[in-house]
């Protein structure tokens, strides 16, 4: 998959994702003191803008120029939008700014080798003591969950991500499969509407 595919997906007027942050990102980052953060594969910037609203200075990177333009437009409507720097970059090959306090990778969809490169590059951008957080579609979601990519080569498990970082020896705080409730018509259910379960993998660790 290349940037052009994602440009086409983001080209519509509506947001592909919600303006609200991913629930796991919000839960895991809410208690962290603000500092410098990277949002890798940021899409339209929902997590980056949420972090900025909590006092973080954020570099938001994605390889889709269209997604970044939509993120900039959202940022222009928010008083904290100037806390986000938007950067077009390939997560597998870029050289991110160093000494970050937090790195977030949310729903990065790459095959094993490219994922490993992106994960290791992102982790290495942290300062010692910085937090690494990855949330992604779990491989089990294909058979046991709902929605998400239907290509098993871009799905992963928490164990895969820990293997990517094995020689870095991070302090692992969480590494597990987590449930995410999905409503057919968006974030909020309509009366009588039943939510379905999607399965994500979540890895949170600290650079040693």
From TrEMBL:
It holds the Pfam family Methyltransf_25. InterPro entries: Methyltransf_25, SAM-dependent_MTases_sf. It is an enzyme of class 2 (transferase). It comes from the Bacteria. Keywords: Methyltransferase, Transferase. Residues 38-130 form the Methyltransferase domain. Its EC number is 2.1.1.265. GO terms for biological process: methylation. GO terms for molecular function: methyltransferase activity. Gene3D superfamilies: Vaccinia Virus protein VP39 (3.40.50.150). This is Tellurite methyltransferase.
